[in-house]
């Protein structure tokens, strides 16, 4: 039996050992002929790997190569597939890991189904336990895991946790020789920020807080002793958290609480920390009202809000319902209170998916829709819908209150859960901030009124 033919590109002027006698040298070939020869060589190597390597059997001789080449070409990835993975694993099914349409690595081939390409630009939380790269502080690594597992959820909670972790990073930082803290510390923070973004897409509030922190770092006096400079930055972080989040929430609670009267029926959607504090404070002031908590998958955050409102010495009468029951509940609602992930300069509210539906139906019933949002969540950009920018919940989401995880995708069914939607300003009655109640049409003037302090 003749030895199997081996196609190999010559590395020098001498012809290869496995070259057929009638085949011309590469020097005498045209560019197109050389390209065709290289394609055949790649196809032959791919066919050998698919059969188990070069020693996979000598019967796959020259007669079987055309079919193997066609098979290798036929296994090229489709437009929506993972080209890099297919080139390394021509066998497809034999691959031990795969990428889904959202960029998430899955060790289970069945879990690597290709989702609709129309959603591939949505951010997806990733499991980053084994992908730590660079000089990442342990506090940041731990925080990234909490973000990716949704154990820390909510714009305020994520921002406070991020700034607190950066305080640890700053205190453990040492300026290298021939460098200044105001220049090198920002370089040191960059991989920390990248790591958090790889765990879960950054929120607008986190981005504003990080930009403010970088501004404070760049303004640090280079003549300060290093420890004094680090202590000063940590105090600046504490001031930002206290003034822009904690105290802002207290002012919002006072303004929004004035809109709650005895006998009111307040409807709220999902869970907003500032709305929760507003309702609890109004109850402490002796106001008698009831709350309807509307909720939806995949996070079911309303259950945690329901537990908070109904516990304590003076529980608030509550009704819990899922989003499909909204039309039958709006007939008795007096005011809708919702939170916001961020607000854009055109007055659009970016919040938990389902907020737009709640606001639209409330507007149709002439029910006031009040948004509670701190000014540090404002964005100077413009967003016209929830499709250009969004985030997907992972296939398996463990709810913070400890209920059953969301079912994973089944064969032929891809589970896609966008976390946010955009509510047009026409559906919003007023926005309650720490600077007062303002209409959505005046959102763009807030940064200018504050001297562009909102970064």
From TrEMBL:
Keywords: Cytoplasm, Initiation factor, Protein biosynthesis. SUPFAM superfamilies: NagB/RpiA/CoA transferase-like (SSF100950). Its main location: cytoplasm. Component of the translation initiation factor 2B (eIF2B) complex which is a heterodecamer of two sets of five different subunits: alpha, beta, gamma, delta and epsilon. Subunits alpha, beta and delta comprise a regulatory subcomplex and subunits epsilon and gamma comprise a catalytic subcomplex. Within the complex, the hexameric regulatory complex resides at the center, with the two heterodimeric catalytic subcomplexes bound on opposite sides. This is Translation initiation factor eIF2B subunit delta. Residues 61-75 have a biased composition (Low complexity). Belongs to the eIF-2B alpha/beta/delta subunits family. GO terms for molecular function: translation initiation factor activity. It is found in: Cytoplasm, Cytosol. Pfam families: IF-2B. Residues 30-42 have a biased composition (Basic and acidic residues). The lineage of its organism: Eukaryota, Fungi, Dikarya, Basidiomycota, Agaricomycotina. GO terms for cellular component: cytosol. Residues 1-117 are annotated as: Disordered. The keyword Cytoplasm applies. Coiled coil: none annotated.
